[in-house]
Amino acid sequence: MSAPRTVLRPAITEDAETVARLVAALLTELSGTDHLPAPDLARDVLSEPGIHAMLALQEGQAVGVMLLNECAAIYAGGRFGEITELYVLPALRSQGIAACLLAQAKAIARARGWHRLEVGAPAQPDWGRTLAFYQAQGFQEIGPRLRLLI
C-alpha cells in the first residue's frame, strides 16, 4: 500500500488550535519539557500581516506545520523570509513532508521577491540530523543565533 498523499494548505486563524498543538510538540521535543502555547497566541500570530503559515495534511489530519515571517534587514538586501517554526510528526519524518513545506517557503519567497530565506537550527551537535536536512535543502550554515528574553 502506498503512503498517504500529503496536501499543503495555508493555515488560517481557524487552525489556531492545530497550529498551537504542533508548535507545542516542536517546543517539547526541543526542550524536553511540556509546552502549551495558547491557541489565542497562535490565532494572533496567524492573523499578523507578513506571516505565511502552512499546514501539511494527510487524510485530512495535520501532520506538519511551517510558519514563515517576512523580515527586513540591510545585510539581507531588504525583505527576506525567516522560517520560525517547522515541524513534522516524528513518525512521518524522512517522507518528504518537511521538504514539501520548504518548497512552499521557496515559492512564497520567489512570489514576494525575496532573495533569501533563513532558519534557526536547534543547538548542535545534538540536532545534527536537523542541520543536515536543511543543508541538503540548500541552506548554508552562517553561525549561531543568540537571544535575549525581555
Automatic annotation (TrEMBL):
Keyword field: Acyltransferase, Transferase
Class in the EC hierarchy, top level: transferase
Annotated N-acetyltransferase domain residues: 6-150
Its EC number(s): 2.3.1.-
Classification via InterPro entries: Acyl_CoA_acyltransferase (IPR016181), Bact_Acetyltransf (IPR050832), GNAT_dom (IPR000182)
Keyword Acyltransferase annotated: yes
The organism's place on the tree of life at top rank: Bacteria
CDD domains registered for this protein in UniProt: NAT_SF
Gene Ontology MF terms: acyltransferase activity
Signal peptide from the UniProt entry: none
Keyword Acyltransferase: yes
Stated name of the protein: GNAT family N-acetyltransferase
